[in-house]
Amino acid sequence: MAVESAADLASFFNADEHGEAGLWSAAGAWDPSAVTVVMDRPDRSADLGGIDVVARRPTALVQLVELPATAGQGDRLVITATGENFEVVAPLERDETLGTATALLRPWGAA
User: Fold this and answer.
1) Which of 19, 27, 30, 95 has the greatest number of CB atoms lying within 10 Å of its CB?
2) How remote is the C-alpha of 12 from its chain's centroid?
3) Interior CA angle at 87 toward 109 and 51, to 5°?
4) What are the residues whose beta carbons fall under 8 Å from the beta carbon of 42, sequence distance 6 or more?
5) What dihedral angle (degrees, nearest 10) is formed by the CA atoms of 53, 26, 35, 89?
6) What is the pLDDT of residue 111?
7) Can you say how many angstroms the Cα of residue 94 is from the centroid of all Cα atoms in its chain?
8) Is residue 97's pLDDT more than 70?
């Protein structure tokens, strides 16, 4: 699905569509920022417009405006509805054109 406008992007992150509420905190701190993420989990597929997408590692797509200025590797993400905890394991892949970032994750505390 190509995102063509701010309205399209807002719809994509809507909790009634693909978005999930979460809390993002910087590495070594617990002063979380509320974020809405679009998760891709390795053991779950997501239907995005008739296409099943499955990731090898969980990833989270988030809007840059919701992230702390220092967001990056080592940060934590908690999905509010499920209580799932993740650690960001690589530098964020930023897309300045769309105003989003993709975070590569692993379950919090997993080796």
Assistant:
1) 19
2) 12
3) 115
4) 54, 55, 56, 57, 58
5) 0
6) 47
7) 12
8) yes
30 Cβ neighbours under 8 A, 6+ residues apart:
none
| pTM score | 0.79
Q: Which residue has the higher pLDDT, 17 or 2?
A: 17
The answer to whether 55 touches 76, Cβ cutoff 8 Å, is: no
Strands 59-63 and 85-88, by their bridges, are unpaired
Instruction: State residue 90 phi and psi, 5-degree precision.
Output: -150, 160
From residue 96, alpha-carbon distances to 47, 86, 92, 102 in Å are: 25, 24, 12, 11
Q: Could you identify the residue written with the tokens 């499955």?
A: 54
Report the pLDDT value the prediction gives residue 69, as an integer from 0 to 100: 87
- Other Cβ atoms closer than 10 A to 107: 12
Closest of 77, 93, 76, 95 to residue 103, by C-alpha: 93
For residue 32, which amino acid is it? P
Nearest to 103 by CA among 45, 47, 38: 38
